[in-house]
C-alpha cells in the first residue's frame, strides 16, 4: 500500500519516494516481497501516479483514485489479488525483510486461519492499533487509537500492537472487503476492520508476533525517516563486515543498499559509497572519499577523492589524494590518478600515470605513459568537444596543453610549457612555445626599487 499522502513529511516529494540508503522507501518492501518469492507483486499508488516506471516490470501498479484509507487501498487491488495467500504490507515500512514476510506467510499457512496479523510488543504503544485477543489467544479485533474514544483504558494498556502487515486467504478477504463500511469521521475504510468481519463470519484470525519491532517500523515524518535510515545503514554495514569487509568507523560511513564490496576491502572513516558502486577484494577506500556508481577492481587505493560514475577502475590502481573522476573514465590496471587530477570521459592505459595538477578530458592515453604536472587536454572549442589521442610510453613535460583534436605518437615527448596544436609523430619531441627573451634593466624602467 503506497497511496498515502504523507502530509507529515512536509515535502513536495511523495513520502514513499524519499530515499533510504540509496533506494526509495517503497523499494525496500518491494525488494523484500521479491526476495521472499512472491508470485505476484501489486503496489497500490495514489492518483498522482508517482511510481510509474520506478519499480520494475515485475510490479503491477494499481491506482487508488481516492484517499479512502488502508481498506480502500486493498479494495482498489481487489481484482488483482489472485488466489492463495495474500500478504499486505504498508509501503512506509522500509525495514521489513524477506525473512519476516516468509515467516508471516508460513505462520498463516500453519494457523489455518482466514487472516494472520503481524504484531509486535512495544513499551510505548502510543499511536498504534491495539490487538485484543480472546481467551483462546485468537485475535478478536484491532482497536484503533488515533480516533478519540475508540479505545478504552484497558485497551490502551495493551502493549501488543498491529504492525500493519497482514496475511489473508484471498477468498474471505474479497468477501470482507465488499462489506467494509466507511462509517467514521474520516470517511475511510480501515483494513483492520476486516478482522471483525471475519470473526463475525465465524472464521479464525491469528496473530504472529515479530520479535524485533524495528523490522516493522513505519515512517510518518522526517524524524522517523532518519531513525529508520540509521537502522537500515547499520544493517548494511554489518552485512558487509560479516562478509569480510573492514569498516573502520561505521558511525561515520555511508554504504548504500546496492553497493557490493569484496573480501578484505577496508573502508576508512568519512567514506560514502553510493549507487551501484562495486569494489573488488583488498581495496582501501578513503578516508574522506565519495564513490558514486564506480566499478573498481581488486587492490584499488582511493584517498581523499570524489569519484562519480559510471566509470571503471582496474586492478591495483591508485587514486588521490584530491582526485576528481567523472563519468566515462576508465583507469586500466596499475594506472594512477594523483593529487588534484581531474579525469573525464577518458581511457587511461595500463600503468599510465597522471600524477598531479592535471585535467584530462575526452582523451585516449596508451599504456606506460607519464603525463607531467599540469598536463591539460583542451577538449572544447566553444562549440564542439574533441578528443586527444596520446600513445604508449609518452612523456609529457610540465605545463603541456594539448589543443584537441590532436594525436601524439608512441614514445613521443613534449617540451615544458608547450601548447601542442599539431600531431606529434612517434619518438619525436614536440615543442611549441615562444623563445625566452630577457629585457635588461626592466625593473629600473618600471621605477621599481
Care to describe what's here?
With 449 residues, this protein is α/β, with parallel strands linked by helices. It has two domains: 7-216, Alpha-Beta Complex (Spore Coat Polysaccharide Biosynthesis Protein SpsA, Chain A); 222-430, Hexapeptide repeat proteins (UDP N-Acetylglucosamine Acyltransferase, domain 1, 3 Solenoid), CATH 2.160.10.10. Helices cover 18% and strands 31% of the residues. The chain is built from eight helices and 36 strands. The strands form seven sheets. It has a 19-stranded parallel beta sheet that branches. A four-stranded mixed beta sheet has the order 5-9-6-10. It has a four-stranded parallel beta sheet with strand order 28-31-34-36, with no helix packed on it. A hairpin with a 2-residue loop joins strand 1 and strand 2 (23-24). The mean pLDDT is 94.
Strand portion? 25-35%
The CATH architecture name of the largest domain reads: Alpha-Beta Complex
Compute the separation of the termini in Å. 81 Å
- What's the CATH C level of the largest domain? Alpha Beta
- Overall pLDDT score: 94
**What would you give as the CATH superfamily of the largest domain?**
Spore Coat Polysaccharide Biosynthesis Protein SpsA, Chain A
CA radius of gyration is 31 Å
> Number of helix segments?
8
The biggest beta sheet reads: 19 strands, parallel
What's the domain count?
Answer: 2
* Count of beta strands: 36
CATH third-tier fold name of the largest domain: Spore Coat Polysaccharide Biosynthesis Protein SpsA, Chain A
Shape estimate: elongated
Structural class: alpha/beta
* Helical residue percent band: 10-25%
Low-confidence runs: none
Amino acid at each position: 500500500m503506497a497511496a498515502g499522502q504523507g502530509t507529515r513529511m512536509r515535502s513536495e516529494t511523495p513520502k514513499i519516494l524519499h530515499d533510504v540508503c540509496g533506494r526509495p522507501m517503497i523499494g525496500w518492501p518491494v525488494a523484500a516481497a521479491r526476495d521472499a518469492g512472491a508470485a505476484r507483486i501489486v503496489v497500490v499508488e495514489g492518483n498522482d501516479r508517482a511510481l510509474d516506471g520506478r519499480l520494475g516490470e515485475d510490479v503491477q501498479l494499481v491506482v487508488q483514485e481516492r484517499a479512502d484509507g488502508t481498506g480502500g487501498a486493498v479494495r482498489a487491488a481487489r481484482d488483482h489479488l489472485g488466489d492463495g495467500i495474500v500478504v499486505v504490507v504498508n509501503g512506509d515500512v522500509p525495514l521489513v525483510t524477506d525473512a519476516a514476510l516468509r515467516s508471516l506467510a508460513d505462520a498463516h499457512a500453519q494457523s489455518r486461519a482466514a487472516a494472520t496479523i503481524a504484531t509486535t510488543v512495544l513499551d510505548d504503544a502510543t499511536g498504534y492499533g491495539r490487538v485484543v485477543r480472546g481467551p483462546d489467544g485468537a485475535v478478536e479485533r484491532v482497536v484503533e487509537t488515533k480516533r478519540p474514544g475508540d479505545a478504552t483504558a484497558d485497551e490502551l494498556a495493551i502493549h501488543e500492537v498491529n504492525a500493519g502487515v497482514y496475511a489473508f486467504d484471498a477468498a474471505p478477504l474479497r468477501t470482507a472487503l465488499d462489506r467494509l463500511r466507511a462509517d467514521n469521521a474520516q470517511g475511510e475504510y480501515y483494513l483492520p476492520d476486516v478482522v471483525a468481519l471475519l470473526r463475525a463470519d465465524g472464521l479464525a484470525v491469528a496473530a504472529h508476533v515479530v520479535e524485533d519491532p524495528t523490522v516493522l517500523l513505519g515512517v510518518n515524518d522526517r524524524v522517523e525517516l532518519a531513525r529508520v535510515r540509521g537502522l537500515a545503514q547499520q544493517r548494511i554495514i554489518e552485512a558487509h563486515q560479516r562478509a569480510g569487509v573492514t569498516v573502520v568507523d561505521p558511525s561515520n560511513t555511508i554504504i548504500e543498499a546496492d553497493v557490493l564490496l569484496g573480501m578484505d576491502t577496508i573502508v576508512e572513516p568519512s567514506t560514502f559509497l553510493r549507487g551501484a558502486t562495486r569494489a573488488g577484494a583488498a581495496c582501501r577506500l578513503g578516508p574522506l572519499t565519495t564513490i558514486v556508481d564506480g566499478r573498481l577492481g581488486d587492490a584499488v587505493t582511493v584517498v581523499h577523492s570524489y569519484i562519480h560514475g559510471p566509470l571503471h577502475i582496474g586492478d591495483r590502481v591508485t587514486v588521490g589524494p584530491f582526485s576528481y573522476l567523472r563519468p566515462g573514465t576508465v583507469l586500466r590496471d596499475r594506472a594512477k590518478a594523483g593529487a588534484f587530477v581531474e579525469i573525464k570521459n577518458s581511457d587511461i592505459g595500463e600503468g599510465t600515470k597522471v600524477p598531479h595538477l592535471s585535467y584530462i578530458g575526452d582523451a585516449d592515453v596508451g599504456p606506460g605513459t607519464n603525463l607531467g604536472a599540469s598536463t591539460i587536454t583542451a577538449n572544447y572549442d566553444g562549440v564542439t568537444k574533441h578528443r586527444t589521442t596520446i600513445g604508449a610510453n609518452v612523456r609529457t613535460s610540465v605545463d603541456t596543453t594539448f589543443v584537441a583534436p590532436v594525436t601524439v605518437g608512441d614514445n613521443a615527448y613534449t617540451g615544458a610549457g608547450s601548447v601542442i596544436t599539431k600531431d606529434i609523430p612517434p619518438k619525436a619531441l614536440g615543442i611549441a612555445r615562444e623563445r625566452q627573451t630577457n629585457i635588461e634593466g626592466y625593473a629600473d624602467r618600471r621605477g621599481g626599487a
